[in-house]
């Protein structure tokens, strides 16, 4: 985004990588226009309900069990005021539980209901982020890990919230970590290294480079 708050291309498409939340939003709007339905309804019908993800939402509404919401905390352990988002954003603010996001990751490990050709494309490098971390279709890819592994990974967070989800394509292992603390990265570095062993240590190393 430019200084005058207008969107513009930073470089010629296909020449380099840069995260774009606006890109996910453009895709959401294209899907809604094509199917003439709200994105939240499409996601609920095609993904959330079939997988039993009953506590997963893109925005606050009257059906949310607020007792499940973990309030964010700063680096000193103090609660942070939070905003209840009422509009769907495909690039941010998904509300779910670690258990339900794990169900989603298992769904991907088991093929995600996709044709084989499209599933293979999900794991094909579409662009390079940095040494050892690429991007496939919507998630980061970490190829050539120890034990002949390929990982797909998604991270997220704002101030006071740090999350990471990792799946190993070949061994079908996975890990989902949600933290409502600004210190969450310290926690997940240790857990990933311990849980996945040498593969986990390499995942952490590439993330911290």
From TrEMBL:
Q: Which residues form the Beta-lactamase-related domain?
A: 7-184
Q: Which Pfam families match?
A: Beta-lactamase
Q: Which InterPro entries match?
A: Beta-lactam-related, Beta-lactam/transpept-like, Diverse_Enzym_Activities
Protein name per its UniProtKB record: Beta-lactamase
Species for this entry: Aquimarina intermedia
Q: What is the lineage of its organism?
A: Bacteria, Pseudomonadati, Bacteroidota, Flavobacteriia, Flavobacteriales
